[in-house]
Amino acid sequence: MPGLFELINIGYQYLKGQQALSGINLVVNEGEIVSIIGSNGSGKSTLLNILCGLIFPNEGTISFKGEEFTEKSFKDDRFNRKFRSSVAYIFQNSDAQLFCPTVFDELIFGPLQSGIPKEKACQRAKEIMQMLTISELKDRPVYMLSSGEKKRVAIGAVLTSNPEVLIIDEPMSGLDPKTRSFLIELIFTLNQVGKTIIIATHHLELVDHFQSRVVVLSEKHTVEKTGTSNEILSDTDLLLRTNLIGEFPHRHDGTIHKHLSTGFLFHDHDNKK
Known about the structure:
alpha/beta
């Protein structure tokens, strides 16, 4: 049985030959959480854009539910509707995603574009607003929202279309701890009801929270290693090599020395700490 997504030897170059991805082989299975990690510039966002069909690789092939797709595929109305109703992308910067006059308009836009009757679209919007605790923002202009509120609205705007796959770029970017906790819990809930979640991040703490399958991109824009969260997070040499952790100077009792800085607290699941 084929994976939900299958990428074979994917390569992507920006203008002037700037390599963004090289030789990417990846299978994403239905119903799993996959965390794609790497330092800034490693190609995480480019890979998400390819998975979403926003850009197309210069090399290799990509398929969705066993059906290979290219730029030409999206000119086929059948495939375009199937894919766009199944796969949703949540941008790192919510301002790049939100454009309607009010929060309620944002939430009903997707369903209406998909041909869902307005009454049903409005009911979906109300249910999603309650789930995301943003009902009081219903008539608020989007530009008047905080970063955390914008993130919730951006998520709501895709959930009203009930996609099978959520692709999320740097979900924790610009969020306060309370909103981060809410979003992590929401992602768990969505995955438990069967949605496939693909996340790109450089926050190792988030990788530890999800205990997902992890794909590590190197600074050479290729897959350095795949494994479980525990396998990846316990491999200090790998994290140093891929610039996900580093050594930083530290002053103690008048002496300057270096410590590894991981940026996360590793959770010991064996000892339940």
